[in-house]
Design brief:
eight-stranded antiparallel β-sheet; alpha+beta; 32% helix; globular
Length: 600
């Protein structure tokens, strides 16, 4: 059985990522890309679906012991886990070096004290655990082959096969180092070169050290901000600049339920807000690369803008169910691909335009086609902004006139007007000023409940939606507007859990059903950070700080967050780690730092 979601650590090479549990088990790894088939899929099934465990030898009936300590080495993505046994102490260092060749996962075992008996158990299963590869020796190397894929194991330890698993049993004393590396290669090509684990470790540490040094944030929440930035960088696909929402699929929003989705793609919304956080903390190269990715993905067809694309800009992300996987804690179905790719979500136009605007305002070199793209997006919105859509939360119920979607359409027009006013683009300025005013009036007339003094989820509804918290952050209305304050207070009353976190929208009760799905879900962490941000904006800074620091307390011991928090089970739920949680963490830290609203 897989560990709790918060029991996992992330390692990666900016092209794919692995999740390592506290007991030294790699339960998830897709090769060679984030969206490739998993070689280890035990996270969504059992050990039969693939895993790689390195840890002290243990009694068969006791289960593998969890590490006594684990941490990242400084500001890096190099994981160090230590076990204390009755015979001594041992450390395992796990990392994936940034690559220009074959993807590699390297594990280094070091004896620290005494003599500790160790075991490596490697069970490779291709195609998400469905295919058992042919495992054999080539000289001193072990290779697993199935169809187009091959994975090569290099180690100085003796290996043997049993029960379709490759084992290594060895003992380490102080000063001993035993290394293991797996490398992926297309099966029709020559074997990949064997790794130099020591040199790769030094190069990986150097990479992260240099990258983190670019960070311009030096406030009181630096540890949390830097760890979130490293996580966002790890979710970037280096060859193209695309940014995945999370490195996993089908980790449930509702344990045992059906709210299980594949997040290994580039949502324009998630990528745009990720870009904004990176820009605000000094990272322009990622912004430039994402802008180039965007222009390639959208190409000359903004009228058919998708809400998400593959990490290289692929458009077809057909959704399928893997019925041989039982799912994380029996949360099924397990889905790959995402059928929401072709939904209409008008807010995406606003997020993309806001990101392009911020990139322009922070000094990113002008790109004429980026400006042209903005103009084309507004030409499209002019005749489509007043349509119902599926909205920010990708509801699978009927389309509605979601207020947040209209607000973000206003943002798209507003930011493009600013671009024209600065002389960096040409467009029908007066016509678009009228369009901006028209959208604003429409939202304020049809999306606002005067009796309750709150904006609502959609036109004509009484439901609330946490996305309304973005109204002041996007500049649609000033923070001191009574309608903004009323909306914030209504969301606190009606969408907050007992522990003060925020739900996206009602999923139970007479107002539920907007998303067309069965079951419940946890508090949405991004929305909870948005509330803290809004509280600071309206002057309730002490309350904002307390909520923010309470949210920081939900991070696992390595500073990582999933998508949601289940207040009933007191555990993280949803895909992990989640860019959409780490981005608002950074943004709220920046706002609280600017306001001086922090403890200590």
């Amino acid at each position: 059985m897989a560990g709790r979601i918060e029991d996992y650590a992330l390692i990666g090479d900016m092209q794919t990522a692995a999740l390592v549990c506290r007991d030294g088990t790699v339960d998830w790894l897709c090769l060679p890309r984030f969206d490739s088939h998993a070689v280890f899929a035990g996270l969504l099934g059992t050990e039969e679906h693939g895993f790689w465990r390195i840890g002290p030898v243990h009694a068969a009936d006791a289960g593998p012991p969890a590490a006594a300590r684990r941490s990242y080495r400084g500001d890096s993505l190099i994981l160090e886990s230590e076990w204390d046994t009755r015979y001594g102490t041992v450390r395992v260092t796990d990392f994936m070096p940034p690559r220009d060749g074959a993807p590699q996962l390297i594990r280094i075992v070091e004896g620290l004290s005494g003599r500790v008996r160790m075991r490596s158990s490697l069970r490779m299963r291709f195609s998400y655990g469905r295919v058992t590869p042919w495992v054999h020796k080539v000289d001193s190397r072990t290779v697993a082959v199935a169809g187009p894929d091959s994975v090569w194991l290099d180690t100085e330890a003796e290996t043997h096969g049993k029960d379709l698993t490759t084992y290594s049993d060895f003992t380490v004393a102080p000063g001993d180092r035993v290394t293991f590396t797996i490398s992926w290669q297309p099966s029709h090509k020559e074997p990949p070169p064997a790794a130099d684990p020591t040199a790769s470790l030094e190069a990986t540490a150097h990479f992260w050290r240099e990258w983190v040094e670019q960070c311009t944030y030096h406030g009181p929440y630096r540890e949390a901000v830097v760890r979130s930035l490293i996580t966002l960088k790890a979710l970037t696909y280096a060859p193209t600049g695309g940014i995945v929402a999370a490195p996993t699929t089908s980790l449930p929003e509702d344990i045992g339920g059906v709210r299980n989705w594949d997040y290994r793609y580039t949502w324009l919304r998630d990528a745009a807000i990720t870009l904004s956080s990176l820009l605000r903390t000094g990272y322009r190269e990622e912004a430039r690369a994402w802008r180039e990715w965007l222009l390639r993905a959208v190409a000359g067809d903004p009228e058919n803008l998708q809400i998400m694309y593959g990490i290289a800009g692929e458009r077809e992300l057909g959704e399928a169910e893997l019925d041989w996987l039982p799912g994380y804690e029996n949360s099924s179905p397990v889905r790959v691909g995402n059928g929401a790719a072709h939904q209409l979500q008008l807010d995406v136009y606003g997020e993309v335009t806001e990101a392009l605007h911020l990139a322009h305002m922070t000094g990113l070199a002008r790109n004429d086609y980026a400006a042209l793209l903005q103009l084309k997006l507004i030409h499209y919105l002019k005749t489509h902004w007043d349509q119902p859509d599926e909205g920010i939360w990708e509801v699978r119920g009927p389309r509605r006139h979601f207020v947040h979607s209209k607000v973000m359409a206003w943002v798209a027009v507003d930011r493009t007007i600013k671009l024209i006013e600065m002389g960096d683009a040409d467009g029908p300025l007066e016509e678009w000023r009228e369009l901006r005013d028209e959208i604003h009036r429409d939202v304020c007339e049809k999306g606002y409940d005067k009796e309750r003094n709150t904006f609502t989820q959609s036109y004509g509804s009484t439901e609330l939606d946490a996305s309304l918290l973005l109204i002041p952050q996007m500049g649609f209305l000033p923070p001191d507007d009574k309608r903004v304050i009323g909306t914030i207070e209504a969301i606190q009353r009606e969408l907050s859990t007992e522990d003060g976190f925020v739900l996206r929208y009602p999923t139970v009760g007479e107002d539920a059903g907007v998303d067309g799905l069965e079951g419940d879900e946890g508090a949405f962490l991004a929305c909870s950070f948005w509330l803290a941000d809004d509280l600071a904006m309206i002057g309730r800074v002490d309350e904002a700080r307390k909520l923010f620091e309470k949210l920081l307390g939900l991070r696992n011991d390595l500073g990582l967050l999933a998508e949601e928090w289940d207040s009933r089970l007191q555990r993280q739920v949803g895909n992990f780690p989640q860019a959409f949680s780490h981005v608002p963490l950074i943004d709220t830290a920046l706002r609280l730092t600017a306001s001086g609203a922090y403890g200590g």
